[in-house]
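Title: Prediction job returns without error message
Component: structure pipeline
Severity: low
Priority: P3
Assignee: unassigned

Description:
Job completed but the reporter wants confirmation the result is attached to the right record. Sequence as submitted:
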Amino acid sequence: TDPMTTTPGPDDATVEKCLILGHGFHDDERASVVAILDRLDHRMVGEPAEGVRLDLHMKDPGHPGRKVTLECRIAGLPTMVATATDDDTKVALAHVRDELLRQLTDEKSKRQPHH
């Protein structure tokens, strides 16, 4: 595969394949959740789907200050955790997505050979 590509291949991890909806989320929300989080896909290119797990859960759903947590486990990397406490779930999802993107970018840059 081309190392410059950002399009997931058939075996690459994607949010759709690797996302596990935990407490506070329902299966009927899956499509809308994936639609918000799928910007993460291009950061997971080259990671085999079976080596990646994304866990999403919400503490105290329906209450102010509820906490949305997205945990990302990629084989060979430290577990990355992003949290947000926005009252609007979609806003919180965008925040955990952007935070996880930042962490993934940091991890990827650490793994790049430095010339």
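Comment from assignee: result matches the submitted record. The first helix runs from residue 15 to 18.
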